[in-house]
Every structure is written in structure tokens, then in C-alpha cells.
Amino acid sequence: MAIFLTLVLKLIPLYVYMALGYLAGKFLSVKKESIAPLLLFVIGPVITFNSVATTEINFANLSLPMLFFILASFICLGFYFISKLFWSDNNRNILAFSAGMGNTGYFGLPVAIALFNSNQVDLLVLAILGVVLFENTIGFLIVARGTHTLKESLSKVIRLPALYAFGLGLIANLAQIQFNQIYADSIINFRGAFTILGMMLIGLGMSSIKEFKFDFKFISLAFIAKFLVWPSLILGIIGLDKVWLNLYAPDVQKVMILIAIVPLAANTVAYATEFKSQPEKMSLAVLISTLFALFFIPLITTNFF
To answer: pLDDT in tens for each of the 305 residues of the chain?
Structure first.
């Protein structure tokens, strides 16, 4: 119980940042559109570059992005077909998209910074790239309901700055470039900025929602995907790895578990709004899952870390 409460206390500041973002959106007219580009095009790529440039390059580490891309795609497509039993409209699309996604960036990375050492944070950034690839390929096509072509989807992927940061970081790693203390201190500042602005961005997104719509069936299926299917599959993979492959070290396994238990992605609300795919339902599901994660993450990490 003491460890559980310690982890909860570590997470509470992140929720305070989120609440401040909500208040800033409601009463100071701060727009998420003014912060999101900083995270996407400036701060995020710097963190990605550092993670790749300073992480040990081996098959296990480099397999993380592909593993999470495959898992996200598999879960998304699985729930797309399962949800056919309940809906025949665009509920299917946004539910399937949210099932494959998780708030790995704006929520998962700040949590990792609060709970993990620097090496584990770098590993988490590598794994997040797989979820980003899913979001902009399979996930994008599913939520857009066929109105966007594969070519359009791939063109969006090509514009992702994180991919270029990944490539540059890989070159720096293979060239064994050594970074000085000034660089290391700067990276700490970038991570701090990402933590605060990322969590505030979630709050800003919530502040712009005009109406919340509760749908028990929709929220239940979203929770089953995010808090039951994802952890079960990851724990199964880790168990299989322990008895057969022995690819992933304990630090990597912890990163994998954290990605599996983060709440629903805040980006799903933006996609749902853009494609008119149940944004009210999605926004409430994201909010409830984010509040639920305050207790779910310490519960799981206490038992499995």
C-alpha cells in the first residue's frame, strides 16, 4: 500500500498540470492549436533524437516500434470487426481507432519521466514511434471511413518530424558522437517542457468540448480494449519472451507494460471531431479513462514492476 500511495503522489502533479490547462482554456482563452505545434515540431523531435542517439542499439530495442505498430493495428482491426455486432455507423470507426491508440505521448512520456530512469524514458520514446506510425496509417484510414486514400495517409507519415529525428539520432548513435554536459542539461529542460505542456494540452482539449455524451456500451468496449486487452497481450508477450526468446530485459518490459496501461489517447477526440465520428462520446471516454489511470497505473506498476 505504501508503494501504491507513493506512485499516486508522483502522478498527482501531472493531473494538476492537466487541470491548469483546462482552466487556461476556459478562462484565459488559451488555444491548444498554439501549443500542439511546439510539441509536435520542436520539443518532441528533440526528445526523439536524444532517445535514439543515446540508447544502446540492438535488435530488442529497435524491435519495439514494430512490435507496438503491429499490436496497435491488430487490436484496432479486431475491435473494428467486433463492434459490427453493436453498430453499423461511425461508432465502429472511432471505437476501433481508440482501441488501437493510447495516450503514449502527452500522458505516457510524462509518467515515464516521473517513474523511470533516463534509459527507460529513451526506450519508451522508441516504442512510441510504433504507435505514431499506427495512428497515421492503419488508424487514420479506419477513422476516416475510407474517405482518405492510402497515398494521402502515407504523405502524412512522410511529414512526421519524429521520423527524421529518429533517422538523425540513429546516424549520431552509429557514429558514436559524444554529447557534452550542456547538451545533457538542455535535454532535461526539453523533457520538463514536454511534461508540463503535454499534460496542459490534454486539459486544453477538454476545455474546448461543449458537450459530454455518456454511452455505457461505447465506454465499456473502449475500456475493455485499453485496460484489459492491451495489458493482457503485453503480459502474454513478456511471459512468452521469458520462457522462449529472452529478448527483452526487465527495463524494457516495464516500458512495454506502461505503454499498455496508459489511458485513451487525447488525439482521438480531435479525429472524432474532424470526421464527425461521435466526438461527445469520445471526449467523455478519454476523460474517464484519464481519471481512472490515476489509480490503475499505480496498481499495475506496484504488482508487475
So the answer is: 777 888 888 888 889 998 999 899 889 888 877 787 888 788 888 988 988 888 888 888 889 999 999 999 999 999 999 988 888 777 888 899 999 989 888 788 888 888 888 889 889 988 988 888 888 788 888 877 655 666 776 676 677 787 888 889 989 988 988 888 999 899 989 988 888 888 888 888 778 777 767 788 999 999 999 999 999 999 999 999 999 888 899 999 999 999 999 999 877 877 777 667 777 788 888 889 999 999 999 988 888 76
Domains and CATH numbers, the chain: 2-304 (1.20.1530)
82 contacts 229 by C-beta, under 8 angstroms: no
What amino acid occupies position 130? G
Nearest one of 293, 302, 214, 303 to 11, comparing CA atoms: 293
